Amino acid sequence: MSRPIVVDSVASLRTQVRGWRREGLRVAMVPTMGALHDGHLSLVRIALESADRCVVSIFVNPTQFAPTEDLDKYPRRLARDLDQLATAKADLAFTPTVGEMYPAGFATRISVGGPSAGLESDFRPSFFDGVATVVAKLFLQATPDCAVFGEKDYQQLCVVRQLCRDLDLPVEIIGAPTIRDAYGLAMSSRNAYLGAAELGIARQLNVILRKAALALAAGSDRIDAINEANRSLITAGFQKVDYVEARETQTLAPWRQDRPGRLLAAAWLGNTRLIDNVEIPSA
Ligand code: PAF
Fold first, then answer.
1. 37 catalytically annotated
2. What is the separation of C-alpha 112 from the centre of its chain, rounded to a whole number of angstroms?
């Protein structure tokens, strides 16, 4: 089993990718914050179906965390991540330091409009600026032909698509289906924070969302279906629901019954915030 090349500088990353390009190879990128799980590995698999080489970045990006959030506690497991990337046949792991990505004097921020409005932004106001800034940097550093993002972070996927469209970044964005455990819980690095009892509650999130999505598809009143989902989440044991919202699939504008839709939610279990989303089936 061959190990991925590991580089931590932008210069080495560029040299490696330039070499592949000279050979006429197509390059895919999977941006991650590490603590890799089956969800990430599925992104690598999809990347390698679309390209000859796959670059995976592992960087816990401080600019997308608010001061009150879990930056310090975010799981970091580089050695294990590299073993998993070897199994998944990723070609290169880019593991920059914070200083490499944000050298002293760094003063630029990218703010994407459109799909970033509401949902996550209502609760994490600077999150998407941090994501857009680091993703733009990663794309300019690695110059991939395509990049794969999971639908688990559905709003992020829409924001990255908007970013590439608006800034003419020549990167094809591929959305990948959410990988779930046997109970439907979406894979997330933050699931590692959950104890056994919390895991049981967390597994209700997708069940409740699916039920609400089916009710919406069957013509239930939007507010009633969403209120019912909120109530069910609290009854299941979630302490707080940040939002359950029905949005249009592409633009994330408020959903109308005749349009393709997505039901998105964020809820708290103790100190852990979980997000998930499901398609509203077409009637
Ligand atoms: O989804 C993530 O892990 C992060 O938001 C990303 C896209 C790697 C940017 O830091």
1. no
2. 16
